[in-house]
From TrEMBL:
Species the sequence originates in: Streptomyces pulveraceus
Assigned keywords, A-Z: ATP-binding, Kinase, Nucleotide-binding, Serine/threonine-protein kinase, Transferase
Residues annotated as domain Histidine kinase/HSP90-like ATPase: 61-168
Protein name (Swiss-Prot/TrEMBL): ATP-binding protein
Keyword ATP-binding: yes
Length: 177
């Protein structure tokens, strides 16, 4: 299992497990301590990274996703997985971590990558209250097109909210191993 945390010693999968909703798409979870095992994948098929709103976080998310795709031996679809993972992470950074920090609340967010048959599932879990909304692209704005990109690059995407209030936005990206 690959994990990476910007929180140093304090960030671990126990923190992640408490944030994962009981459903990710059609994958039912039973509040387990290990997200990868709950999804039915081996430790070698799961990677997680905590997200931060610090400068350079985009570079770190993309580098982490590239590293995982390389370690998993993805031969086609890696660039798409990196783009989708970054767009999902960017939404959590903008709407939960940055806006939450401005209001005095400290948000938390994690990126999870799950290796499935012929696909990588990119999922971002955060504790922000806003639901993701696929909007029509507005060429006059410099933001708001992230989910449009995710919708075009992934074969499926969706989101769910857990009873504890966290939400997970996920996308399935076809890949070749």
């Amino acid at each position: 299992m690959i994990t990476d945390s910007d929180e140093g010693e304090g960030g671990n999968l126990a923190d992640l497990a408490g944030m994962i909703p009981l459903e990710i798409g059609n994958l039912a979870l039973s509040n387990p301590p290990d997200w990868g095992l709950a999804l039915g994948v081996s430790a070698a098929g799961f990677a997680a990274k905590s997200l931060s709103a610090e400068e350079g976080s985009g570079l770190r998310v993309r580098a982490f996703t590239w590293m995982v795709m390389d370690q998993w031996g993805v031969t086609a679809g890696a660039e798409t997985a990196v783009a989708v993972a970054w767009e999902l992470a960017a939404n959590a950074i903008r709407h939960t971590l940055r806006e939450g920090a401005e209001g005095g609340a400290h948000g938390r967010a994690w990126l999870g990558l799950v290796r499935r048959d012929e696909a990588v599932v990119c999922a971002v879990t955060d504790d922000g209250p806003a639901s993701p909304l696929l909007r029509a692209a507005d060429p006059t704005k410099s933001h708001g097109r992230g989910l449009q990109l995710v919708n075009r690059l992934s074969s499926h995407w969706g989101w769910s909210r857990s009873p504890s209030g966290t939400k997970t936005v996920w996308a399935r990206v076809p890949t070749v191993w």
